[in-house]
Design goal:
- This protein has ten helices and twelve strands.
- It has a domain of about 200 residues: NAD(P)-binding Rossmann-like Domain (Rossmann fold).
- Strands 2-1-3-4-5-10 form a six-stranded parallel sheet, sandwiched between helices. It has a two-stranded parallel sheet with strand order 6-9.
- Helix 1 links the parallel strand 1 and strand 2.
- By secondary structure, the chain is an alpha/beta fold.
- The structure holds NADP nicotinamide-adenine-dinucleotide phosphate.
- The site of NADP nicotinamide-adenine-dinucleotide phosphate (NAP) has 27 residues, from helix 1 and strand 4.
Length: about 290
Amino acid sequence: MRILLFGKNGQLGSELCRSLLSLGPILAVDKDDLDLADSDSLKKFIIDSAPDVIINASAYTAVDRAESEPGLAYAINAIAPGMMARAAGDLDAVFIHFSTDYVFDGMKGSPYTEDDEPNPLNVYGRSKLEGEQLVMKAGGTALVFRTSWVYSLTGDSFLTKTLAWARQHETLRIVEDQVGSPTWARFLAGVTSALLARADHAPFRYFASRKGIYHLAGKGAVSRFEFTRQVLALDPRRTEQRCKEILPARTDEFPTPARRPLFSALDCSRFENTFGLFIADWKETLALALV
Ligand SMILES: NC(=O)c1ccc[n+]([C@@H]2O[C@H](COP(=O)([O-])OP(=O)(O)OC[C@H]3O[C@@H](n4cnc5c(N)ncnc54)[C@H](OP(=O)(O)O)[C@@H]3O)[C@@H](O)[C@H]2O)c1
């Protein structure tokens, strides 16, 4: 199968470049190759590439900056995926897109399922929700995977920031009232590739009856405070840490331009039941990531 991948340099995209290698030829691009804000060029590029599968790992992910750049956030997170989905439909290609736990308001108090009503609290979440809606409205064979708290050891994620802070400061203050499902980018890429391998070179036929929105994140839920404790305990270069204590804090002690949902853990059972793939616990995955 011929695969077109957008966002090859991002946390998830760079992992997908590796994990998809055995599935067929990959055309992987990023902003330097094609600016997704240019929707005319985007459509032509997709049609000319004639892929069997389009994977969109690109996104405008600067949650706070999106509050002052809503036009750009909507162009990348809503208009571009909508265009990709329509072009995929024209080509009878499968479209795989990623969305976010930030489509929810965090008030539910237990893991969100796909049947829960979205109610985003910020521009980023609203732009991603509109992206989901445009993708599903396009009517092709599309899969939208809502994921959450994505980390890798190379990107600019909460995990890499935590490791850096622990090398700079003796005391860390970390919020304990934000709870979510941490997801290793490599795990997410691996599951996506395993899923495509199931399609056995006929992705359109395999996914046509399974299209829709799925939650796909590390299993379970944890606060940022507890996640940080685990990260520092598992850090293979613990001896370089200056940090001696981690103190719990509240979100409202660190005002940010964008409001965030306080509880946004995702229930991934629909994905597991539909595809027969096992989602690993966030803690086991973290231990593997930090080996
Ligand atoms: N990170 C998280 O915690 C998180 C949580 C929930 C859901 N998600 C979703 O998971 C997916 C993957 O996230 P990620 O963390 O891997 O994102 P990421 O590391 O920020 O990567 C996003 C990629 O999109 C590219 N991009 C941004 N603007 C572009 C434009 N105008 N034209 C072309 N490419 C552009 C970026 O290129 P540049 O680097 O050159 O700008 C980057 O390579 C996204 O759909 C995201 O919304 C992420």
